[in-house]
Design brief:
Structural class: alpha+beta
Strand content: 5-15%
Strand order of the largest sheet: 1-9-11-12-14-13
Distance between the termini: 21 Å
Order of helices and strands: EHHHHHHHHEEHEHEEEHHEHEEHEEHEEH
Number of helices: 16
Radius of gyration: 42 Å
Length: 628
């Protein structure tokens, strides 16, 4: 036996434990067309939409809908968009005022100097706020809930003062500026709380009434002027109430939409995680044979080893996928598929094939005459289906076998004791030979009973961390001495172990039993030449450790391979058929797995058994034991 240290960079087979998907392999990110791509945050939260009764006094109707949250920090809110529209409208109105002065001058109507100054000053202020990003940027909604806030003063306050001044200054002219007061009333009704909006309408109404009253000495009809001011004020109150109600309704709709969007994003991430972690392969294929989305399980099934490329990709043009292409075309042609699915055979270049059970579902549109554009394929390896069916049967049989084995122990002990008593008085050599035969078969039955009881369902103890490097080396040495296998460079057993301790989650005695069973099988079928048995322990992966035992014996036939790990299946007349079954059951107790694969080694095809174990952190005592 030769123990060869190896560096940690060499790997054995695919890393089945490494299910971490890379960037760009997302399910929904690869779906082009048919569904919109969702931007799913790392920690999605559902934004709760508070009821209007939860609104704090003094908050505007927009405050609750624009508080901190993922969407509020990323997207422009409705409040911000409306605010920018008002800023643009004020700039346009300022330009209109200046143009009106110029047109009036051309028509012979000369505005007074104060009127021109107020118009030009308002236009300059409104245009500057629209042009400069610092002033155009939306203010927090609660800033409009304070009369002293710069935002309220620079917009609504300035509009009320300027438009009222224009109305007063143009009282004796042919220009009417009273309609301009609709803008500050509308802004107040939408951007400010209801109380402030009504107060703004009331102030403007009082100013109009005062203007009408002061217009009486200039020859105006007091009744007509007061009536016009009162009607205009009433209209302002109606505009305020309607605008506020529409704004509140829009704010509630925005809160509801944002909550629904966050819920959809969360659901999209959950769906993506579920689909990516599914054991069955999932493909979304269109009529042209283009794969729009594929989860990791499907990409593994479509490749002879490892994974195929990420979606989107074309099914047509790959010889191994011709059967799958024909299946998809048939499904689109029939627009129906059996619920149980149909078998599809993939033939790869290395003369290997894989049979898949394909179940197809369609994304039916509601339009009666619409044709199917996409189909969803659920792919499952037929071997996994057969193994799952066998596993269910074996689980039931295991419970029955454990009960039978327990009942056999007592009569078996009685037979052994009676045979021992009879052998003490037996003198005839023929009788002694028969009694020896009985004793040998009793011991064989005892071993079978012990094996059955070993893997009987029961409480699984928590496994600690053991140093796989030290335990594998010790077991290999004990096994070689027990079986008379020579040691040294010409040994049939070649062992490659990492130079450092490798912590795994396993029981030491159970790992010894698994390893002895695999070495016995390998030695039984190996040629016995130097290096005919190769044992490797690979610790290159940070989460998994891989133990492999390969022999140069005749490859296991394809019709025997599906039954290797079934109980009581053996190709030897004297074999119990429990060795590999026990190995699998012991591995599953500790979150490990064992499988058979035909693999090349040193220029020859080798029967390989691979054990995939979970890594664990070693205690200081275990680490020091390896060093000594």
């Amino acid at each position: 036996m030769a123990l060869t240290p190896r560096g940690p960079d060499r790997r054995l087979g695919p890393r089945r434990g490494d299910s971490t998907s890379r960037d760009g392999e997302s399910w929904f990110g690869n779906f082009e067309g048919g569904t919109a791509e969702l931007d799913v945050p790392e920690d999605p939260r559902i934004a709760a939409a508070p009821a209007p009764s939860d609104q704090e006094p003094g908050d505007s109707q927009w405050t609750a809908s624009t508080r901190s949250g993922p969407s509020a920090e990323r997207d422009a809110t409705t409040f911000e968009r409306i605010y920018r529209v008002f800023i643009a409208a004020r700039a346009a109105l300022g330009v209109a005022l200046v143009v009106t002065l110029g047109v009036a001058g051309l028509l012979g109507v000369r505005p007074t100097q104060p009127l021109s100054v107020v118009s030009i000053a308002y236009a300059a202020l409104a245009i500057s706020m629209w042009l400069l990003p610092r002033f155009r940027r939306a203010a927090p909604p609660n800033s409009f809930a304070r009369l002293r806030s710069p935002q309220w003063i620079a917009t609504i306050g300035v509009d009320v003062v300027c438009f009222t001044a224009l109305h007063l200054l143009a009282a004796n002219s042919s220009l009417n500026y009273q309609a301009l007061l609709v803008l500050p009333v509308l802004m107040a009704g939408i951007l400010t709380p209801r109380l402030f909006a009504l107060a703004t309408a009331a102030v403007i109404t009082l100013l109009l009434l005062a203007s009408a009253w002061f217009g009486v000495p200039h020859g105006g009809d007091v009744t007509l002027l007061m009536t016009q001011a009162g009607l205009a004020g009433s209209g302002f109150f109606v505009i305020t109430v309607l605008a506020g109600e529409l704004a509140r309704r829009l704010a509630r709709e925005e809160m509801t939409a944002r909550g629904s969007l966050e819920m959809a994003r969360q659901q999209a991430q959950l769906n993506r995680l579920v689909i990516e972690e599914m054991q069955d392969g999932v493909l979304v294929v269109d009529r042209k044979g283009r794969v729009r989305a594929a989860n990791p399980a499907a990409r593994r099934l479509l490749a002879p080893s490892g994974m195929c490329r990420t979606a989107p990709f074309q099914l047509r043009g790959v010889p191994a996928w011709e059967g799958l292409v024909a299946t998809v075309e048939r499904a689109f042609g029939e627009v129906s598929w059996p619920a149980a699915g149909r078998d599809v055979v993939l033939k790869f270049d290395n003369q290997t094939h894989r049979t898949l059970r394909a179940r197809i579902r369609f994304t039916r549109r509601r339009e009666p005459q619409a044709s199917e554009e996409f189909c969803v394929l659920f792919l499952e390896d037929i071997r996994n289906m057969q193994a799952r069916s066998r596993q269910e049967k074996l689980a039931a049989m295991g419970r029955v076998s454990a009960g039978i084995a327990h009942e056999i122990r007592n009569p078996l002990a009685a037979i052994a004791q009676a045979n021992a008593l009879l052998s003490e008085d037996a003198t005839d050599p023929a009788q002694r030979q028969l009694m020896s035969l009985v004793a040998d078969n009793v011991e064989r039955l005892k071993r079978i009973v012990d094996d059955v009881m070993e893997v009987a369902p029961g409480q699984v103890q928590n496994a600690g961390a053991i140093d796989a490097t030290a335990h594998v080396a010790a077991v290999c040495g004990d096994w070689a001495r027990a079986n008379g296998v020579p040691l040294g460079e010409e040994s049939p057993l070649r062992v490659e172990l990492p130079p450092t301790p490798v912590g795994v989650s396993f029981d030491a005695e159970h790992l010894r039993r698994v390893l002895v069973n695999l070495l016995d099988n390998a030695w039984r079928h190996a040629t016995g030449t130097p290096g005919s048995i190769a044992l490797r322990l690979d610790a290159g992966h940070e989460l998994r450790a891989f133990l492999s035992v390969l022999s140069d014996g005749t490859p296991i036939p394809a019709d025997v391979e599906p039954y290797l790990f079934e109980p009581f299946f053996s190709t030897r007349s004297r074999g119990t058929g429990l060795g590999l079954y026990i190995c699998r059951e012991l591995c599953e107790r500790y979150g490990a797995s064992i499988e058979y694969r035909l693999r090349p080694y040193a220029g020859a095809q080798r029967n390989g058994f691979f054990v995939d174990m979970r890594r664990a952190v070693l205690s200081p005592a275990e680490a020091s034991l390896h060093l000594t």
